[in-house]
Amino acid sequence: MKGSRIELGDVTPHNIKQLKRLNQVIFPVSYNDKFYKDVLEVGELAKLGTKMLNHVLNICEKDGTFDNIYLHVQISNESAIDFYRKFGFEIIETKKNYYKRIEPADAHVLQKNLKVPSGQNADAQKTDN
Could you tell me the pTM of the whole model? Predict the structure, then answer.
């Protein structure tokens, strides 16, 4: 399949079952029916992803006990890497053969530091990003 190009369009009621099947095959987690209903209501996965990530970041900020957030992204998923970088995540490591059923199998580990480094105030850290 080298050299092939796949383009994905908008999620609609006509193709939501295909998205559900893709997620079942590709991802190691299962999403409930409410997730797919929300995808249709939002209309765009990026908007839902932003909403979900902001929710998690807000919970962590309010809790105050989290130092970092980590996540894995397939090394070829440049749009996801760019998305997370906009939220302050940085690539800190690459894990070989992280995925078992997709190519490339390697994943970047991304980290977002939630604690202000000593000697800096919160405003200074925000302007540095």
Answer: 0.57
Mode of pairing for the β-strands spanning 90-95 and 68-74: unpaired
CB neighbours of residue 78 within 10 Å:
10
Query: What letter does residue 65 receive in the DSSP assignment?
Result: -
- 47-78: pLDDT as tens digits: 677 878 888 898 888 898 999 999 999 999 88
Q: 72: Cβ–Cβ under 8 A, 6 or more apart, which residues? A: 95, 98, 107, 108, 109, 110
Distance CA 71, CA 80 (A): 11
86/121 Cα distance (integer angstroms): 21
